[in-house]
Design goal:
By secondary structure, this protein is α/β, with parallel strands linked by helices. The protein is built from 13 helices and 13 strands.
């Protein structure tokens, strides 16, 4: 079996594959030349991250493909249903990066609540001449303890966000398509653990009404989940973080909500026009921004590679 890791794979993943006798090709092949490379080398497995697109024409052009793997949660860059119709196994890593994304959510929440996103911009420019003015400007910060955290989407990432929120002493509310109750367990360094039961709602207006912080953790959606009508249902001064997908929140009406004070601050790790975000977003001082880094930690990359490799080894037994 030959595996092409076109967007790279971790050392842990390499080790698992090679120990199983699987040939690993680590070439970074340009999209336009990918079909030719796969056919020339009779590649059985194509592994990608976000950069490589696996659309219907590529799938049709590469009859040797038996497995397509995505290192990450979403598979927006793969025509999943079509590949499966052609008998190709499509796999991803829904667990590996969940904690990393959740920690990114709170990195942004802390940055917004303590004005770190803006003070880090202004201190190099005016810290020497306007130190006291900046200190006064950023004085009205907020703690997260005791605040209400809303989470839209309660998959693996949403659950990790909830765990961190609970650990910080936040009240957690959930919005899911279908109301449900789930148990979460927080495990600590000394072996102790504590469990919580959380119930979700599917009534948007009730969910949004009293939030202090809102985290979006859904798959890609048709249309916006958060738009003008939803902003109007929120109380003034809410903080919002989107680490889900571009297009989950309307970026134009978000800027309006920031300018009106309805939203005190927002963070975007993903964008509608990724990888070329709109300039008004990049220049807005009330936005904390990162270039789609949610799952990009060293730990997550190792876990992603290992999770993909283990799935490939298991599938190989039945191919």
């Amino acid at each position: 079996m030959k595996v092409l890791a076109n967007d790279g794979i971790s050392e842990a993943g390499k080790k698992i594959l090679t120990e199983a006798g699987i040939e690993l090709l680590e070439h970074r092949v340009a999209q336009d030349h990918l079909a030719q490379f796969i056919n020339e080398h009779l590649v059985d497995v194509l592994l990608v991250r976000s950069a490589t697109k696996v659309r219907q024409p590529l799938i049709d052009a590469c009859p040797s493909l038996k497995i397509i793997g995505r290192g990450g949660v979403g598979m927006d860059n793969i025509d999943v249903d079509y590949a499966r119709q052609k008998g190709i196994h499509v796999i991803n890593t829904p667990l590996a990066s969940s904690r990393s994304v959740a920690e990114m959510v709170f990195a942004h929440f802390f940055a917004l609540a303590r004005f770190l996103h803006e003070s880090n911009r202004m201190m190099p420019l005016e810290g020497e001449s306007k130190f006291n003015e900046l200190k006064k400007a950023y004085a009205k910060a907020s703690e997260l303890e005791g605040k209400t955290l809303g989470i839209i989407g309660f998959g693996n990432i949403g659950k990790e966000v909830a765990k961190i929120g609970i650990a910080l002493g936040m009240r957690v509310k959930l919005l899911t398509r279908t109301p449900k109750t789930e148990s979460l367990t927080l495990s600590f360094f000394d072996g102790q653990s504590v469990s919580f039961e959380l119930a979700s709602t599917n009534v948007m207006a009730d969910f949004l009404a009293d939030l202090d912080f809102l985290s979006l953790n859904t798959p890609k959606t048709e249309g916006y989940i958060i738009d003008k009508a939803q902003f109007n249902q929120m109380k003034d001064g809410v903080y919002i973080v989107n680490t889900a997908r571009g297009g989950v929140i309307n970026e134009v009406t978000l800027i309006d909500a920031l300018e009106s004070g309805k939203v005190a601050g927002a963070a975007l790790d993903v964008f509608e026009n990724e990888p070329t975000p709109e300039l008004p977003l990049l220049m807005n001082p009330k936005l904390s921004l990162s270039p789609h880094l949610g799952g990009n930690t060293q730990e997550a990359q190792e876990k992603i590679g290992a999770e993909l490799a283990n799935q490939i080894v298991d599938l190989k037994k039945n191919l």
